Amino acid sequence: MGGTQPAWSHDGKELFYKGPSHLMVFGFNSESGSVTGTAKKLFDYTQYRNTLNVDYQVSLDGERFLMTKLENKVYNEQLFVVMNWVEVLTHESP
Q1: For the chain, how many structural domains are there in total?
Q2: Among 1, 14, 29, 68, which residue's beta carbon has the most beta carbons within 10 A?
Q3: What is the mean pLDDT of residues 8-18?
């Protein structure tokens, strides 16, 4: 079974990827360059945003994932970038 959006675990021993409807994982032995075991389904991701780019992040311990959950709401997607935010926080108001 194929997949998309591969992402390595922090230790390089697992490769996560998106299958048709589930986030999948299989083990990898970097010394031999071979797959260990068979791919396992981790969870259904259909309730999460699905884009062409890798749209999830794996925690350092490989136990948690950061994904954007879809809601039945319409969002005005805006991104606000605050430059010099440390100075803004430490600046005293008159």
Answers
A1: 1
A2: 14
A3: 87
d(CA 17, CA 26): 9
Assigned token pair, 25: 């994982």
Domain containing residue 70: 1-94
Contacts of 12 (CB under 8 A, 6+ apart): 28, 30
Whether this prediction's pTM lies above 0.85 is answered by no
CB 17 within 8 A of CB 24: yes
Quick check: 88 pLDDT over 80?
A: no
Residue-level pLDDT at 52: 60
For the chain, what's the residue count? Answer: 94
* 17, amino acid identity: Y
Contact (Cβ atoms closer than 8 angstroms) between residue 36 and residue 29? yes
For 89, the token pair is 């926080």
